[in-house]
Amino acid sequence: MKDASILHDRDGCHGLARPVPEELPSIGLPICLRGLGLFFFRAPHREYVPAGKKNFVQLFWGVAGRGCVVSDGLEYELGPGDVFLRMPMEEHDLRNLREDWTYRWVAFDGPLADDFVRMYGFPRSTFRAEACPHDLFLSLEILLRRRSPFAWREAVGVIAGILARAGGRSDDSTREGRLVNQFIALCQEHFSDWKINVNLLADSMGISRFALTRLFREKMLMPPGKYLMQLRIQHALSLLQNTEKQVSEIARLSGFADFSHFCRVIRVATGLTPVQYRNHESPHPGTGRT
Questions:
Q1: pTM of the predicted model, to two decimals?
Q2: 202 burial class (0-12, 13-18, 19+ CB within 10 angstroms)?
Q3: Which CATH homologous superfamily contains domain 175-281?
Q4: Does residue 91 carry a pLDDT above 60?
Q5: What are the phi and psi torsion angles at 271 (to 5°)?
Q6: Which of 135, 48, 158 is nearest to 96 (CA)?
Q7: Nearest-CA neighbor of 150 among 33, 235, 250, 259?
C-alpha cells in the first residue's frame, strides 16, 4: 500500500493527501476524504490557483492571525473561528498581506461532494463558527493514514462532524447558548404539563417571549413553541407505538388537555388518527386500546 502523500514544502505547512489524489478508494461512498493540513504563512503571502483546476470541496478554518479569501471577485476576511468553503472548480485565492496567518483545511471529493455541502446552506462568504475543532482534524489525519474500508467510511462521519461544528453549537459558552439550553431543559422536564407554554417558561427564565423567540430561532432554526409541541408529539407517538395505554391517557401524559385538539395535532403530524397510527406503527397491530 502506498503511503499518504505528505505536503510540507512551504514554511510552517503540514498536509496529508491520498497517495494518488485523483483516484477514489474502491469503496462506494457519497464523499471521500482527499487531504487535509495545518498551514502557517508569514505575511505577505498569496496562494492562487485559477478556476477549473481544483475539482473538490475545500474547507478552510481560521486558527490564528488574519488573512482573506476571494470569492466571486469579493474579498472576505478569515480569522480565528471563521470558516470558508471553496466549491469544486472555483478559483482558489488566499492572501495574508498584513499579518501572519494560520488555518486548517480539509478537502473531499466523491460523487455527491458538491450537493452534500450545498444542502447545509452555508454562506458563500466567510462565516463565523467557533474555535477550530483540532481533534476532528487530527482524527481525519489518522484515518487518512490507515485508509482501510472502515477508515474511509469513518472519515465521512468526521467530515460531517466538522461541518456540524461549522454551523455552530447551542452550548453554554455564551449567554445566548445558555438561555436556549435552559429553555430546552425546561421543556423536556415539563412538557407533559398542559399548563406549560412559552410565555410561562420565558417568565420563569426572566426573559421576554420576544427575546426568547429571537434567540431560539437563531440557534435552533424554529420558534420555541414549535419545539415544545414537537416534544409533546414525539412523546405521544412513542406511547402510541410502544404501549397499550388508552389514547385519552396518552393525550394527558403528553401535555394535551383537550382530546379533540390532541387528535387534530396527531392527524396533522402523521396523516392518521391516533388509533390509526397505533395500528399502523405498533409492533403488534390491533392489540392497542383505543
A1: 0.72
A2: buried
A3: Homeodomain-like (1.10.10.60)
A4: yes
A5: 80, 5
A6: 48
A7: 33
